Each structure stands twice: as C-alpha cells, then as structure tokens.
C-alpha cells in the first residue's frame, strides 16, 4: 500500500460501516496514528454529510478523553482521517476478556467517560453512537479511556425528530427506534447499557435475533436490574435512572455528573493533585489560626482529591509518595477531629434556631426526608465547589500556586515537584455541584409568586449558604444553617402546591445532607465505595452537627 501524507500503513486494525481502520507510522516523526480509510464510491449523499459533520466536530474537540483528529486528506478513491492511536484496544475487547468488571474499575472508567460527556454537553454535541467499540483505551496503567467515532454526532440545542435512525440497536435509546426522537439524554441511555454490560456481562436487551431485540426496544415494561451479582446502592440507583425508557424520567446530565457513583468534581484527573495540596496547605494554615471546623473540612476536601490523585498517578514512585501522604493526612485530620470533640463551643450546637413566628415551627425534618426520599437519592449532593483548576476558590491564585509548589517540593523534591506541576498541563473546567445548585435555585425563582414571599426568603438564604460554601467558610455556613433551617422547613411545609413543595423540600434538605457527610470520619477514604457507610438524612436534624454526633 502506498504511503499517504507521509504515513506508512502497517496493520489493519478493523472494519466499520463506511471503511477500514489501519495502524500507520509517520515516516519522519515515527509517531503512530490510526487511519480511517473510507472508499468514496460507497458513500451516499447522507454518508457524505455525516463524514463532513464528523470532521467538522472533531476539528473543534480538544479533550484528554476524546480521540484527537490529527489530519485528514483525500485522493481519487478514498478519504483518509488520521486519528490518535490507542494501543490498549477498545472496551468491547476488554469486556470480552474480563466478562464482568469490578465496581471500582467500572467507576473509574465511567468517570472518564463522564468527563468526555461533560465536555460534549457544554458544546451541545450529542455523540449518538456510544458503545464499547467506540470507547478506546491506552495501554498505560491506569489506562486512559477515550471516546471515538463521531460519525453520527450532531450539534443539538433541543429535542429533534429525524427521518433516520442513527446508532447501534443494542445501545440505542428506545425513543430513537420507536419515534425517531433525538435528545441529549439518548447518550445517557447508551451509558446505562454499557454500565449494565460491565456489571452483568451482557447488555440489558441482549438478543438472539434482530426481531427479538426490536421487540425489547418497543416493550414498555421497565428494564429489570438483576439482583446477582450484588452491586452497591449508588451503582444500582444510577443504573436504574440511566435506563428509564421515558427520556423525561431519565437522569439529567447535571444529575449524572454529580451522582455519588460518578462525583465528577472529585474524580481522578490531572488536576486532582494540585487541588489536593491547595486544600491541605490551606487547612494547615486554618488549623494554626485555631479555625478548627474550617481546617477539618479543608482537610476532608484535600483528602478526597488526594485519594483521586493516588488513583490517577501512573508513576510507581510518585504513587508510593502519594499513598504515604494520604495516610499521613488522614492521621492529621483524625487528630484534629479529636481536638474538635474537646472544643464543643467551636461547633454551633447551642443556638436556638431562628424561626419565623408567622409559620408553624413544628416542621419535622424526618418526615420531610421520608416524603422526598426518592428525589434525595437521585439528585446531586451538595459539595463545595472545586473546579478543575489549580485553585479551589476565586481567591489569590498566586498564593494558591505558591502553596501548591511548596508542599509538592516537600513531598517530591524541587525538580520532581516541577515535573509534577508541568505534567498537569492545561486545566479543564468542570461545573461544580455548587453551580448546579445555583441553576436549580434560578428555576425555583420562577415558581415563586407574590403569595409565597417566605419561599423567596428561603431561596435568598440558600444562595447565601452556597456562597459561604464556595468561599469555604464552613463554620459560617454551619452557623447560618442552624440559624435559619427551622424557618426554611416551616415555609416549605406551609406551601400548598405539591410540585413546588417537592422541589423546595430537596433544596432545604441538601445543606444538612452535605454536612452530615462531610463531618464523618476521614478513615472511610481507605475503604472501597461499596464498603463506605451511608449517612442518611437524620431525624435529629441539626443535632447531627453537635460534636458528640456529627464530628
């Protein structure tokens, strides 16, 4: 085969709908690429449009979890697309070799896929053909996952109806096959099918024939999730919400990114280490200033990111150092927890909550939790925002960078610290749960009328609460929560519009859920997700924040 654009074709990697994929080597640089060769004489007018769309979209995309388009060209017989080569094969081959995957491996893969989907979601791009064959892996340890093959991808701002079916039937959302309806949530259905296959070794609609498969697609009954092998509560919850036949009931992208099983703000990524060291250094400074609650919660944030950094790190020596530091800072945080137990006055447990005298003050948070249990399980948890950037807040970035380099130098030495910092590369911003919370509050504003001024006060107070979290003023947030929580409950209980009340119930319960989670022991970081204890919304309401219960 003749070289093309300086590349020598060395190996046939596979065949697809429109052509073949070869491994090729650049004769000058010796770099390896995957070359998609598409015969011109097989392309229909629609296929030409799809190819043009694929090239246009790939030229715009720059993300570590999406394969990079290197170049494209054509001659009299073929169109050639030169794409980043992935030596680890695809997820389909990996699944065939493993049958089923452990939940921790699935979570790591799914988090990387979520990073890619978050990037596409920001750009209003729908892939429309997510399946294991289109998910490639590097051969590194741990492997990097990358989404590929954007031949069916489209830019979608809203739901549309098309006169054709795009994608692979086994991974296709039912609304596409049944009604030709395309929406951003169709990609999330495909993710659910892949998650199901990773867990149970088969797709939910696995069939012996096309007729059997299409019958399952058109069936209206809920997708059954097997009871064996057992899976964690978070994993089962996510799977059930991804595989909703009705796209209106399917989990939304924002909920998916912040679901406890995904937890994208804390997922392993290149920025995990710098986010960790910034929180840890800040925690040390706060502890020295005797701001113990803020210090403890910054240690918790730092440890969450440090655990992710350990998982992400591929260098054996660096990983060993990071593990040692993880154990060290867990000890530091646990010792601080003991100090907090000896300083009861440092936690806001003695104040009488402020209540609006015009409202019923007997609101029961336990009843609130029970009446909203389904929504609580599926809606994103509230966590303080740390975007994928060097600094977790909008404060002094220069000071943050200095703190990070200083601590990294202590861990790795000056030269190694420079290498670690340089390896992070350009940062990618991921919307945080805080930002999604603000978006939800904006939606609540639209539900408020002149007769519900008390609910308007609730929204105003929640904005202030999230602002305090964003600034990492945890002690102030605790004080503010204790002062106003009972009044929020009373205002919500007095509302007589069920849908609005349901929306407000979740928003009011989320702040308590946040602190009940964050004030638990840091030792759970050494456990797997399935071993970690669950912290429900407790009946004691704000009493869980007292030193003998919460910390």
Explain how this protein is built.
By secondary structure, the chain is an alpha+beta fold. The protein has four domains: 7-84, Phosphorylase Kinase, domain 1 (2-Layer Sandwich); 91-262, Transferase(Phosphotransferase) domain 1 (Transferase(Phosphotransferase), domain 1); 270-346 and 390-426, Methane Monooxygenase Hydroxylase, Chain G, domain 1 (Up-down Bundle), CATH 1.20.58; 347-386 and 429-551, no CATH class. 48% of the residues lie in helices and 9% in strands. It contains 19 helices and eleven strands. The strands form four sheets. It has a five-stranded antiparallel beta sheet with strand order 1-2-3-5-4, with helices on one face. A two-stranded antiparallel ribbon has the order 6-9. A two-stranded antiparallel ribbon has the order 7-8. A hairpin with a 3-residue loop joins strand 4 (69-74) and strand 5 (78-84). The radius of gyration is 25 Å and the shape is globular. It starts with 6 loop residues before the first strand and ends in a 33-residue tail after the last helix. Residues 344-399 and 524-551 have low confidence and may be disordered.
Short structural description:
With 551 residues, the chain is an alpha+beta fold. The protein has helices spanning 45-60, 91-98, 103-122, 174-179, 186-200, 210-218, 233-242, 253-258, 272-288, 292-312, 316-341, 365-371, 373-378, 397-412, 414-424, 433-445, 453-470, 474-494, 498-518; strands at 7-15, 20-26, 32-39, 69-74, 78-84, 125-126, 135-137, 145-147, 154-155, 160-161, 181-182.
